[in-house]
Amino acid sequence: MTQPPDSPYRPEELVRQGGVGAPDPFLRMWTPHRMAYIEGENKPTSTQAGSGCPFCRLPGLGDAEALIVHRAEAAYAVLNLYPYNPGHLMLVPYRHVADYTELTPAEVADIATLTQQAMAAVRAVSGAHGFNIGMNQGEIAGAGIAGHLHQHVVPRWSGDANFMPVIGQTKVLPQLLADTRELLAKNWSPEEERE
């Protein structure tokens, strides 16, 4: 395999680690900060409200600190701290409730309206070509925080890095969360303004 002269990859410089493994052509992108997520740091150990639930705690913080993009009456929009793609939002009812069937009509309406507003804001800021929208109900379905319902809005682009997490075990995020939050908050339009 021929490498460009300025390539940081030098197979001859790879060193075996105690005889384990063999040199290969892959670059390594070390992301030790993700160990907090993998090991469940700050993940509530109980499904009860106030038992360390981050979705109950976030509304008590300032928007920039909490990464909250917009607050409605019954729910709020917040950036995912561990995003799948840049601009990955979660829509969360203020009330600590685990199941979609337990939401009040006002909470359902706010989450639906926030979904529309989130899509419009992300398109305005980044030109997203599409979205994955959904929620995982219960731990068995993949909910990271099963005790407090939240809906994901994940922007997608043609040719985005969708292969990276699957094949490369790497997530590519070109923008800091604080910068993404500021852009989305500035471009968030309430439903009345869009009509």
Automatic annotation (TrEMBL):
InterPro entries reported in the protein's UniProt record: AP-4-A_phosphorylase, FHIT, HIT-like, HIT-like_sf
Segments forming domain HIT: 54-163
Location of motif Histidine triad motif in this chain is 148-152
| PANTHER family assigned to the protein according to its UniProt record, in alphabetical order | AP-4-A PHOSPHORYLASE, HIT FAMILY HYDROLASE
Q: What class of enzyme is it?
A: transferase
Gene Ontology molecular function terms on file: ATP:ADP adenylyltransferase activity; nucleotide binding
Q: Which residues bind substrate?
A: N80, H152
Q: Which domain of life does this protein belong to?
A: Bacteria
Q: Which UniProt keywords apply?
A: Nucleotide-binding, Nucleotidyltransferase, Transferase
Q: Does the keyword Transferase apply?
A: yes
Active site at which residues?
Answer: H150 (tele-amp-histidine intermediate)
Give the region (Disordered) as residue ranges: 1-20
E.C. no: 2.7.7.53
Which residues span the membrane?
none
Q: Which protein, by its recorded name, is this?
A: ATP adenylyltransferase
